[in-house]
Design brief:
Elements (H helix, E strand, L loop, with lengths): L5 H9 L2 H21 L3 H20 L1 H14 L3 E5 L2 H14 L4 E4 L3 H6 L1 H7 L3 E4 L2 H9 L15 H11 L9 H18 L2 E4 L3 E3 L4 E6 L3 H7 L3 E7 L3 E2 L5 H13 L6 E5 L13 E7 L3 H6 L14 H4 L4 H4 L10 H12 L1 H4 L11 H5 L6 H15 L9 H14 L2 H14 L10 H4 L12 H7 L6
Parallel strand pairs: 1-10, 2-3, 2-4, 4-7, 5-8, 7-10
Antiparallel strand pairs: 5-6, 6-9
Helix pairs in contact: 2-12, 16-19
Length: 468
């Protein structure tokens, strides 16, 4: 879920002019659609508070809500499995599939299955997992991982997709017409839906009171995965539980508006059990795998627990000045962008991913748009501090000169007279300071500082503004 090659991947992404163009054309559209669907700022703020309150209430009662959810699911005829780690979750899914003799699975969009690396695991055991979300289908053909939580193939343009379909799908002529490309994917996947022995999906929300699984989508593939094959397996993180159905409408409004700029998605699926007598369709058997994979440790910290409020809308990615310039693959993690920089170090450990929280300007754009009001900047600062104190990878990489400069600044900032004296000296001796390039990592991303002729205090006095 994280590794030490982050800086190298960032350099590679920044040097890829095509990638930069693709992201520049896509990211502005997401932000504009969100503004259009939430034109009333005061109404949006009330809705955000309502959504955040629903998520906070659920997390406050998470252990008991999970038990309530299990009872309700079992009462609805759904099999429930608990997975402490991704490896355990993979094994549970494999055992279910093998018990039913399944060799092909059709998959709806699921970030948890990406976190588990489920496709590769099943492939090693001779089971073909076919992604049916169009974006996921594209990157599966390309042998890549998602670049975005909501739009997995956002890093690819039409010509790249056309070439991919032409090369990977037998008998497909080269075309850049969107309608024709969609038709090719539809024909290919329709056969997969008919032949698959099982469907696998994620879960957007699970309602504890009723044992209802909620999935939202725009293409209908999720409904095909959960309704056509005789077996349905849903995988979900344990934080996705909510208390009651009444909490669902505001959360769905926030999720779809923040993710795609829609008032509601094309399909909202509420699954409450397998096919019953008299039902015309639906799976004969439904299983739910509840995945922990480090979430309990996140939950145990009263401050970091807010990370689990996330509803995976991807809105923070769309507004992040770092993500929109380097894309998701540069992070080398399942969850990129601001939420990934907060979540991944907690799940994967600071040694493996402690550098991610430092890849932020702390501008607060992510926190400003988060539909459930996660305090992302505060969490980023907390993880930065922990990384530095632990001497973990990414946090202790500053050179000796840089560390000395910051210690000197800290000392002077604690003594006003010394600070004013050094500032005065800086105005006259600034030209003698070492070049910014000598400040190692810090210098690579910062311009040469220029000392102002007047201090802020003297400027205030000159303008007749009294000291506070």
């Amino acid at each position: 879920m994280g590794d030490s090659g982050f800086e190298a991947r960032v350099e590679q992404a920044l040097a890829d002019a095509g990638l930069r163009r693709n992201f520049a054309s896509a990211m502005g559209g997401f932000a504009a659609r969100r503004l259009a669907v939430f034109p009333d700022a005061a109404a949006l703020e009330r809705l955000r508070e309502q959504g955040a309150a629903a998520r906070r209430r659920a997390l406050a009662r998470l252990p008991e809500l999970l038990e309530e959810l299990e009872r309700a699911l079992v009462g609805n005829g759904i099999h429930v499995h608990w997975a402490e780690t991704a490896a355990v979750g993979n094994r549970i899914v494999l055992e279910i599939l093998e018990a039913h003799g399944v060799r092909r699975v059709v998959k709806g969009k699921s970030m948890v299955s990406e976190e588990m690396h489920l496709n590769a695991f099943l492939a090693r055991h001779g089971i073909d997992a076919v992604e049916t979300d169009l974006g996921e289908f594209i990157i599966q053909l390309a042998g890549e991982t998602p670049s975005h939580i909501i739009v997995p193939a956002v890093h690819k343009n039409r010509a790249q997709i056309a070439r991919l379909f032409h090369e990977k799908i037998p008998g497909t002529p080269y075309t850049e017409e969107v309608a024709e490309l969609n038709a090719v994917a539809r024909r290919t996947l329709r056969r997969m839906f008919r032949e698959a022995g099982a469907g696998l999906s994620g879960v957007n929300f699970a309602v504890a009171a009723t044992g209802t699984l909620c999935l939202v989508e725009n293409e209908g593939n999720g409904r095909m995965c959960t309704g056509v094959p005789p077996l349905h397996i849903a995988v979900m993180g344990i934080e996705k539980v909510i208390e009651r159905l009444e909490d669902l409408p505001p959360l769905l409004r926030l999720l779809t508006g923040s993710a795609t700029g829609q008032r509601v998605t094309t399909y909202v699926n509420l699954i409450s059990g397998p096919r019953r007598a008299g039902d015309p369709d639906g799976p004969r058997e439904v299983h739910v795998v509840l995945l922990d994979n480090g979430r309990s440790a996140v939950y145990a910290d009263p401050e970091l627990r807010a990370t689990l409020q996330c509803i995976r809308c991807g809105c923070c990615l769309n507004h992040c000045p770092v993500y929109t310039r380097i894309g998701g693959h540069a992070y080398g993690t399942t969850y990129p962008g601001p939420i990934g920089k907060v979540l991944t170090p907690q799940l994967a450990g600071l040694e493996r991913a402690g550098g991610l929280p430092f890849a932020s300007t702390l501008c607060g754009a992510c926190e400003e748009v988060c539909p459930v009001k996660i305090p992302l900047t505060r969490l980023l600062r907390r993880l930065r501090e922990e990384t530095v104190r632990a001497g973990a990878a990414g946090g202790a990489g500053a050179g000796a000169l840089e560390r000395l400069a910051w210690r000197g600044y800290g000392l002077s900032a604690q003594h006003p007279r010394l600070y004013r004296l050094l500032f005065a000296c800086g105005r006259w001796l600034g030209g003698l300071m070492p070049p910014v390039a000598a400040l190692e990592r810090w210098g690579r991303a910062h311009a040469e500082p220029r000392f102002a002729r007047l201090s802020l205090r003297r400027l205030f006095r000159k303008r007749g503004i009294p000291d506070a």
